[in-house]
């Protein structure tokens, strides 16, 4: 059963809790144009969602604060891959990227499916993203020039 997402506002004049009923609601209504979570009550960016999950190791939990969400555009209008931007501490910087996706077939008589891929989704630190990118360049999947061109495009 989907319990939704409890969004906590960090704005000192608000500090209220609001809720997104599902991943589609969260993506469409609870983030600013940069992907940072925002409060549904006051509208300010800088909100967070606390999540805690049991690990396979006995009595251990994975605790994280979701501070943003970035969706990836695809040709399939029903399929939306995304990354949660996470931090291990509430007031900390984003230090993790949690990959997931959702598929919304409700307009076609189906369901909203929220997934993390077969066997769960990976979470990479910023350094691991650069390590992955380095390996992609080394393997020739992405060239150094592609990366340089991308950096220049982002600067524009």
Shape, per Cα inertia axes: globular
Query: Termini separation (Å)?
Result: 44 Å
> Ranges with pLDDT <50 over ≥5 residues?
none
Provide the helix percentage.
10-25%
SSE run? EEHEEEEEEHH
Beta-strand level of the residues, as a percent range?
A: 25-35%
Q: In DSSP terms, counting alpha (H) and pi (I) runs of 4 or more, how many helices?
A: 3
Instruction: Report the radius of gyration as a whole number of Å.
Output: 17 Å
Largest sheet: 6 strands, antiparallel
Structural class: alpha+beta
How many domains would you count in the coordinates?
2
Q: Tally of extended strands? A: 8
Determine the mean pLDDT. Answer: 86
Describe this structure in words.
This protein is an alpha+beta fold and 156 residues long. It has two domains: 5-124, no CATH class; 126-156, no CATH class. Helices cover 21% and strands 31% of the residues. The protein contains three helices and eight strands; from the N terminus they run E-E-H-E-E-E-E-E-E-H-H. It has helices at residues 23-29, 126-138, 144-155; strands at residues 5-8, 17-20, 49-54, 61-71, 79-87, 96-104, 112-115, 123-124. The strands form two sheets. Strands 3, 4, 5, 6, 7 and 8 form a six-stranded antiparallel sheet that branches. The model has no long low-confidence stretch (mean pLDDT 86).
């Amino acid at each position: 059963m989907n319990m939704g997402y409890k969004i906590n506002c960090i704005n000192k004049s608000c500090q209220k809790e609001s809720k997104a009923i599902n991943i589609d609601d969260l993506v469409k209504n609870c983030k600013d144009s940069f992907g940072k979570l925002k409060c549904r009550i006051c509208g300010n960016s800088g909100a967070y969602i606390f999540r805690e999950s049991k690990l396979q190791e006995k009595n251990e939990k994975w605790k994280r604060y979701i501070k943003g969400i970035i969706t990836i555009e695809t040709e399939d209008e029903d399929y939306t891959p995304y990354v949660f931007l996470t931090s291990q501490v509430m007031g900390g910087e984003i230090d993790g990227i949690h990959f997931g996706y959702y598929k919304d077939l409700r307009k076609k008589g189906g369901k909203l499916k929220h997934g993390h891929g077969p066997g769960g989704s990976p979470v990479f630190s910023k350094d691991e993203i650069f390590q992955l990118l380095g390996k992609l360049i080394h393997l020739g999947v992405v060239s150094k020039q592609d990366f340089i061109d991308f950096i220049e495009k982002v600067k524009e």
